[in-house]
Amino acid sequence: MAKTAPKGKPAKLTRAEKKQARAEKRQSRRETWRNVRQAFALTRRNDKRLIPYLVIAGVLTAAVVYLAWFFITGSPFLGIPAAIILALPVMLIIFTRRAQSTMYAQAQDQPGSAAWVLQNQVRGDWRTTPAVAGNAHLDAVHRIVGRPGVVLVGEGAPHRVRGLIAQEKKKIARVAGDTPIYDVIVGTEGDAVPLRRLNSYLAKLPRNLSKPEVATLEKRLAALSTARVPLPQGPMPQGAKLRNVQRTVRRRS
């Protein structure tokens, strides 16, 4: 009869399970480094200041740390490891911010970019339903539900998107009752919110609902999501894929 592990203690892994766990960790590390290399290559190709900024930040940080360590210890050698160890995180932070800025710059004004950000980049407990309304020009309205209430995020030409948002607001108001309904247009014209600031805009909205109320509201709004407009998958659709999507939207509109 097989022995069972005592309650409260995790069961010991077999040799095969340990080997499988190590293999999964190695694969995860490979994928992480592969993603970092791809992000670095893309950012370097589109951001000519990346390398100079990284070099300047690394050298300045290392110099400050080395001098501080030298004055404290008096040793000309002990400060070298500390300078390198502390310079690397600073360079990583700068790289991350430059890469993020490059990503948003590439995605700005591309059809589907706002939906991609809402589904992949927005922090917090938000329930996203992309493309609840749209037209043949690939203007679209996305709905997200969270503690502030309902937020309609429009992308496309502002003079067309405002009409789509107004129609969607009427539909939601019949179901949501007194729930606050906010709206924002993503873009660079007029009072539109740039794509890179969409996360900040959502974070500043007041919390009006409890978590159970959010779940209940989402269920009530689910019936409005039966007919959704197809949009490109990802923030930067190009070429033939975009033309195919446009034809699909026109057939369904």
Given the structure, what is the number of helices?
Answer: 8
> Largest beta sheet, briefly?
4 strands, mixed
DSSP strand count:
4
Can you tell me the residue ranges where pLDDT is under 50 for at least 5 consecutive residues?
A: 233-253
Mean pLDDT value: 80
State the strand order across the main sheet.
Answer: 1-2-3-4
- Secondary structure category: alpha+beta
Q: Tell me the overall shape.
A: extended
What Rg do the Cα atoms give?
Answer: 25 Å
Number of domains: 2
Give the N-to-C terminal Cα separation: 66 Å
What fraction of residues sit in β-strands? 5-15%
Helical residue percent band: 55-70%
What is the H-and-E element order? HHHHEEEHEHHH
What features would you highlight for this structure?
alpha+beta; single chain; extended; 253 residues; four-stranded mixed beta sheet; 2 domains; 11% strand
